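Hi X.,

You mentioned you wanted examples for the new student's onboarding notes, showing what a folding record looks like when two proteins sit in one file. Here is a clean example. The first protein comes first, with its sequence line followed by its C-alpha cells.
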Amino acid sequence: MIRTRFAPSPTGSMHLGNLRTALYAYLVAKSATPKGIFILRIEDTDRERLVEGSLEFIYKTLRGVGLNWDEGPEVGGNYGPYIQSERKAAYLQFAQTLIEKKAAYYCICSDEICKCRDENIQLKEGEAFAIRQAMPKEGSTTFTDLVYGEITVENKELEDQILIKRDGFPTYNFANVIDDHLMAITHVVRGSEYLPSTPKYVLLYESLGIEQPHYIHLPLILNQDGGKLSKRRGDANFEDLLEEGFLFEAVLNYIALLGWAPKDTTEIFSLQQLEEAFYIEGISKSPSSFDKTKLTWMNSEYIKKMSEDDFYQFALPYLQKSIKKEVDLKKAEREGDFVKAATILQQITQLRSSMKYVKWFSNFW
C-alpha cells in the first residue's frame, strides 16, 4: 500500500508551495488502488526557527481544505510519535551505526570549516560534538525520480553534511530519511529544490542497508515576475488569500493545477474529483506561475454555486469588518441590512470574484 507524508516545520504561515506539496502527497496516496495512507509528520528539530501557534495553524489549514491525515498528531497510528522532537533517541542510534560503518564521523569543528574527517577525533568527556556524513570522494550516485527521470551526480560535488547537531538534534536532511524508513513511507513528495540533496539521502539509505522510497519532486511555483514565491517580496501566502475573500475550495483547486495537468480540459475539481483524476505522470517538470487573475476567476466559479445563505455566512465577517462608521452591528444584522448587502455583493463577486468590494458597502452606514 502506498504511504506518503507531509512533513512541515512549524515556523510560520502556510506558503502556497507547502500547501501544494501536502495536496500532491495526499493525492498520490488517495488516487491509488487501493487507497493509500496520508501521514502528517511535524519536523520541529530546528528549534531556533519555531514560531508559536504555527502547529495549530498547520492543523487548522489542512483540515480546512479537507486534507485529513490518516496517521499523525491528534490522530495517532502505529508508527508514532509523529513529532520529530519526540523521536530524538532513534536518530542518534542510526548515526552511531553509520560511524561504525565508516559512513559518518564525529566532528568538533565549526559548522563552516571541517577538518575532523581525516584526524581520527577522540572525544573528550563532556565535549560537544556533531556527527557528519562521510561522502565518497570518487564515483557517482544515481537515483530515479518519477517526474525528472534518472539523475546522476558526481560524489566529489557532495559536501560532508551534518547529521546530528551539537545540541543533539538531527538535521532535517538526516531526520527525514530515518523517519521515512521507520514510518514505511513508499513515496516521498517534495519540492524540486530538494533534488540536489537527494544523492546524500540515497547514500544514507545505501550505507544503512535499508530500502529507498520512490521520489516525486515537484516544480517550483513562480510569481508573475518569474521569481520564486516569497512573502518578503510581497507574494500572498495561504492565509493572506483567505483574508482577501478567496474560498478554501477555490485555492485548493487552483494550486492543484500549478504543476499538474488533467487528461482533459477540466479545470474545476472538488477534492474528491481530484482523487479520481490525479495521476503522477501528469506532474510537470517545468515551473508554474501563480496567476492571481486566474485564481480570481476560479473563485467566482465557486461563488456562483453558493446558496444565498451560505454566501451570507461567508461574507458576514468581511462586511462587519469593513464598517468604519459608528453602527449598531447587531441592529443592522437584525434588520436584515447585512443580508441585503450580501445579496448585492454576491452578484458583484460573481462578476469580479473578489471580496475587496465589501469596503464599498461601508459608505452606506
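Then the second protein repeats the pattern, sequence line and then C-alpha cells:
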Amino acid sequence: MDICVAKDKHKKGIMRLYRQFNDDRIESGVGDSDYQVLDGEMPWAKTLHDEDCMTLILTEKDFVLGFVTLRLSSFNPFKNVDKLAEVDLMVIEKKLRKRGFGTQLFKRASLHLRTYAVTHILINVAVSNKPALNFWKKQRFKTLSSTHFERADGEEEETVYMVRKI
C-alpha cells in the first residue's frame, strides 16, 4: 500500500469512495451530504490544484482505497495556535475499516502538514456518526465545543468540533 498526494488520475477513485461515504450517510439516517456535482466533478476535485487544500490517498496498484482532504485554515480563532489545518473529509473503503488504514493515512497526513508549519488540526464530526467520532478520539483529538443545526431534511443534528496538536 502507498500513500501519496492525489492527482487528477485519482479523481474517479476518490469519487467512488465519496459516493460510498454519501450512501453510508443516507443509510444511517443522517441524510445526503448536499454536495452538488459540478460539470461531472465534485467541488473537492478543484482542490487538487488549490495550494491551500490537499488530498492524500491510500492506494494499492493505483486503486484508491482511502483519502483525506485537508485545508490550511485562513481563520484561526485560537490564541496559542500558530497555524491551523482542517480535515474536510476522510473516507476509507468500507471493507478495509477497523484495520489500521485510517490511522496510517492520518499519520501521513499529519507529517505532510508539518511541511506547511501546521501546529494543530481541527475537525468537526456529527455526534450521530459514532464510528467517526470514535476514530478521531483514538487519534487523540479533544472536543472543543458542539453546535446544533438543522439539516436540509429538517432534522436537527449535533456536531462536535475537535482539535489536536501535531
